[in-house]
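## retry 2 of 3
previous attempt timed out at serialization; input unchanged, resubmitting
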Amino acid sequence: MSDTPAAIDLPTRYAPAEVEATLYDRWVAARYFEVDPNSDKPPYAIVIPPPNVTGSLHLGHAFEHTLIDALVRRRRMQGYEALWLPGMDHAGIATQNVVERELGNQGLSRHDLGREAFVAKVWEWKAESGGKILGQMRRLGDGVAWERERFTMDEGLSRAVLTMFKRLYDDGLIYRANRITNWCPRCHTALSDIEVEHTEDVGELVSIRYGDGADAIVVATTRAETMLGDTAVAVHPDDERYKHLVGTTVELPLTGRQIPIVADEHVDPAFGTGAVKVTPAHDPNDFEIGRRHDLPAITIMDDNAAITAHGPFLGMDRYEARPAVVAALRAQGRIVAEKRPYLHSVGHCSRCKTVVEPRLSLQWYVNVAPLAKAAGDAVRDGRVTIHPKEMEPRWFGWVDNMHDWCISRQLWWGHRIPVWYGPDGEIRCVGPDDAEPGEGWTQDPDVLDTWFSSGLWPFSTLGWPERTAELERFYPTSVLVTGYDILFFWVARMMMFGLYAMDSDGPSGSMPFRTVALHGMVRDQFGKKMSKSFGNAVDPLDWMDAYGSDALRFTLARGANPGTDVPIGEEWVQGSRNFCNKLWNATRFALLNGARVGELPPAGELSAADRWMLSRLHATLAEVDAYYENFEFAKATEALYHLVWDEFCDWYLELAKAPLAAGGAAAAATQAVLGHTLDVLLRVLHPVVPFVTETLWTTLTGQESVVIAAWPTVRADLADPDAEKQIAAVQDLVTEIRRFRADQGVPPSKKVSARIATDGSVLGLADYVGQVATLTRLTLGDDDFTAAAALTMPGARVELDLSGAVDVEAERARLSKDLAAAKGEIDAANAKLANEAFLAKAPEPVVAKIRARLATGEADVARISAALEALGSA
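## retry succeeded, writing output
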């Protein structure tokens, strides 16, 4: 560090747009974010939650990336070989939809091109239009190792996918079966449970009579069209109303088919009539009933959710068929009751929002039971920590009850399932090093669920299945930072695959990460979910344009409490911009006044204010370190905000003006403290606000970059409780004087004379008090002084000469009027609170409001009475 004052090379105002892009390009060119797997530094690694190749930066990304970047930048400064590995997900359904829409605009479909040409078209789209978010990440300041960027469809990761599939298949953990799946009629593919979003929708409950006479039975449904595929009616085995019918058959209306009546404990006898229709091919619960009772499963819809059952409804869309079926049943006198509103859970495709159709189809599945158990055990035995701990029950609730995972998708974009079918019904799974079968063999047309490849992300991006230096060095990764909303989507899959793949050959442990740090969702300033449909969605680039990337980052970090949602409004970003400006102006002031970074003078040469600032600085640094280790970003940034704004800028810079103006040894000591304080502040703020701190720190120190500077170390030797106590007394006294002046109507700029009698707590600090309380002079003890007003506080009595500063009589009259009004508020509140009839009828919030008015009135009376007493008797 330099022992000479830094040259003043800062504009009078901070303009983020003029420095951010240039700084980021310089960091990347200098390779500050790259890593050496062969270094002797301790490793620290985070893999980015891969954004979709179709995506663009939204506030959720900005929030998550800010937190990850802060962690990695801090560890880098602490001397770790810190890797933040970037990359993107190929986003199978979303990307295919984008390219198909573009083809549709040309009057074409993917089938017009054929599979090979279509996939080539998607790669072309990726090269030209995909990955927009990567440039936006640079704008935000993401310190990622760009030279190690990965893509889930690149050659290395594709090899990892094929290897994992082959291992699971050979171990009997992947199988193919006809089962109920979530089918999207718009995307024409199966979906896993986690790709289905459920909403509470209002349907129309229709009651239908099956059979006639004494053997008739009534069922209720919101999906009348599916009755065409019914193969049974089910009742509860203990339901006395239907015991005589169990084992008999009933005619299914409109079809003439006879279907059995079965007893099954799944049926809720209290719901509707206590009898339910069973459609095994179009309902997951009915599918299980069908398996238990060996019922046939009749598929009555095609890929577009159009009716395939022969008859008058053939070819109708499901929503056209529904009223048509009801009308036909009504014509036969089969409708007992209809169109009763019924609120029920309806699944929608998470990509296109189409209502999914539960549909029997032949798909590939992962047997998750042993994998999920391992994922649960890793948390239970402490190998993986979920933070905050309160999220653990949600984790166990999912992994302990996970259903087998449907991994096949009827798409063309993605990793094609490496299974081949022979001419005589043979099935062969082909690994990455296996030769493809010859003539007569055909490959399965489906591709794998996107989450299959992203589940390998923590180790495939490091080179697995090869034994790379990166895998040996950085696996397991240090921490996964992600939203609690994808705890099940992504985290569970990474845990299952990591524990399975690396269990026998993991370099230093099988889990994919040691800690899962969960954050909440970004919401608007009123706590409402952000959505384009709500009209409250925000493009973070707009805020970065207006206020700078640092301002957005600081706002997001300041709201980041573990596992809880983060409200954000534009005015908060404006406030963070003001914070950056405050830091800028404080640094300019320090530089203009000779601040220097070097050795601090001995404590004996420092003033009480100097020692106080150093003590508060390092105490806060210790707090920030502890907060970072617990992922309490909000507490860390809040502590730094108050240290910078309230203590350094509002107090220390004011207290520093007198010794700086005096010159000599006192000025030199203060210049050293200014330099040291700013050096530490800028380094510890850097992970959250990298751009402004880089500009200020390099100007202050003359060093290369704060990105590679050492993280400041807490200096216990600078703790000074006595100095903190002294300056706290000064702060209390000055605050009281300022409050008194305001109460008396003395303008802040008006200087007055004062005298203080003290118990010694501010003895020797009179100049400080006079300077920051806007006093012309402050005399001590029994000096000759004529007081017009006085105030008393613990340890001190301050008398003020208000002559010429305030009209005492007019001020006394004003305060007397205010006192009377405050007493009136008290009397009115007491009257209501003493009224038993009022208290018995009034809602608690109303009563609480009156109690608050009483408390406010009492506080006002005490304050005004003190002000009147300070003015003296008339």
